[in-house]
Design goal:
418 residues, 6-stranded mixed sheet, alpha/beta, 10 helices
């Protein structure tokens, strides 16, 4: 798909911005703090309904204003697509699709297909599992938006179940209390917990299996992309083939989905157990840990505690990979996502995703920078932010549109196509 125009109102540093966007490569150039990342953050928000920089919407609204508006025009599979989003912290955000109100905000998921790589992505390798789970879910929701509803249902049940566990912990420590209507409070709570177990296992099994299936599909692209960006083999013509024409390769980079449910099943990488079997095992694990969960007041089993393990040379990358290797792994994950989206049209049908590189070249050494330039040259649309023209690699070939970004303004450079 192609972004053709972006309009921002009171979003971050922009009172108002109207930016036409060309196909091919667009490089937004400006000093740090001028608003380059704000532009691509707005596009990413349309794709994922979240920011890659902050966890809450309040920071997205310009200081002194109550609402920010993002309007974007696209071409998708040759047809125009208009997406409007109104962000109002403290209230429900509102959206319009093709000029019509969207009843549920998550119905936007899957409409805008994009892949973003930013400095924050180093946390995919070095930080806690939460970021890796979010990475999987964002990609999953773009390919199959219906899983956003399943994840929302899972989160709702998890919250209710965890609240009940805390109540049961209080009863255990302070006495069961008086019966109500002839029902013993402890027995009533225990029966309710079993109901929440059933629901958590149901939604959790669907989410876990979807994530596992996604990791299984992503693995070969990850290994391939790591070779392209991190090694001298990346310059070989055989590694420039499109995703659907690649053969088997041996790569030092690998990923696997880690879950206590899969451990209990004895699953190995590549396995995809039936949903019913996953649900059965998850329900068993929940029941077996009731006492421990009540003591701690938290739910100890389920996809909210799972992880995507990243390995390099058969060692866990976290704590093993060097700084440069960690950057290559993070970049390879995003490029693997890009390749997967190119092959899988998703529930809505689409086209090639928009590739966004936010201040990436300055973080890479010259060899990785040049390799990345060769990789992205063939993409239909790429948006790049950089503080310096000199960071643009020589290997980046084709028509490049330069946009100068200063505080509150983004202006295509006259004669700025290279």
């Amino acid at each position: 798909m192609q972004l053709t125009a972006l309009e921002l109102t009171d979003f971050r540093s922009y009172p108002r911005l109207q930016l036409p966007v060309q196909p091919g490569i667009t490089v937004m150039v400006g000093k740090n703090g001028q608003g380059k990342t704000n532009i691509v953050e707005a596009l990413w928000y349309l794709a994922t309904l979240s920011s890659h920089r902050v966890p809450h919407d309040a920071a997205l609204v310009r200081r002194g204003e109550s609402t920010a508006i993002i309007r974007a025009s696209f071409l998708r599979a040759g047809r125009p697509l208009q997406v409007d989003l109104e962000i109002t912290p403290g209230k429900s955000n509102r959206a319009r699709l093709q000029g019509r109100n969207v009843s549920r905000l998550r119905d936007l998921l899957g409409e805008v297909r994009a892949v973003l790589f930013a400095p924050e992505d180093l946390g995919l390798v070095k930080a806690d599992p939460e970021g890796r789970r979010r990475f999987l879910d964002e990609l999953l929701f773009v390919i199959a938006p219906r899983f956003a509803s399943i994840k929302a249902d899972y989160d709702r049940v998890l919250k209710q179940r965890s609240n009940l566990l805390k109540q049961m912990r209080s009863m255990r420590r302070g006495g069961a209390g008086k019966s109500v209507g002839g029902l013993d409070p402890a027995e009533s709570a225990s029966s309710t917990l079993e109901v929440w177990d059933q629901q958590l296992a149901r939604y959790g099994a669907e989410l876990l299996r979807a994530r596992l299936h996604l990791v299984n599909r992503l693995r070969p692209h990850l290994g391939y992309s790591y070779l392209r960006v991190a090694t001298d083999e990346g310059a070989e013509q055989s590694l420039s083939l499109p995703p659907d024409q690649r053969g088997e390769i041996s790569s030092p980079a690998d990923i696997a989905y880690r879950s206590t449910v899969l451990d209990e099943l004895g699953a190995v990488p590549g396995d995809l157990p039936p949903t019913a079997r996953i649900q059965e095992v998850l329900l068993k694990l929940l029941a077996a840990r009731h006492d421990e969960e009540i003591d701690r007041g938290v739910t100890l089993s389920g996809p909210h505690r799972d992880d995507m393990e990243i390995r390099l040379h058969d060692f866990p990358a976290k704590g093993y990979a060097s700084h440069g290797e960690s950057w290559s792994l993070a970049l390879a994950l995003r490029l693997a996502s890009y390749d997967l989206l190119r092959l899988e049209e998703g529930d809505l049908g689409d086209g090639e995703p928009i590739l966004i590189l936010d201040d990436v070249f300055s973080e890479l050494d010259v060899h990785r920078r040049e390799r990345l330039g060769r990789i992205i040259t063939g993409a239909f649309q790429v948006l790049i932010t950089t503080a310096n023209d000199t960071d643009i690699p020589d290997s980046l070939d084709g028509t490049i549109t330069l946009v100068d970004v200063a505080l509150g303004e983004a202006v295509p450079r006259t004669g700025g196509a290279a």
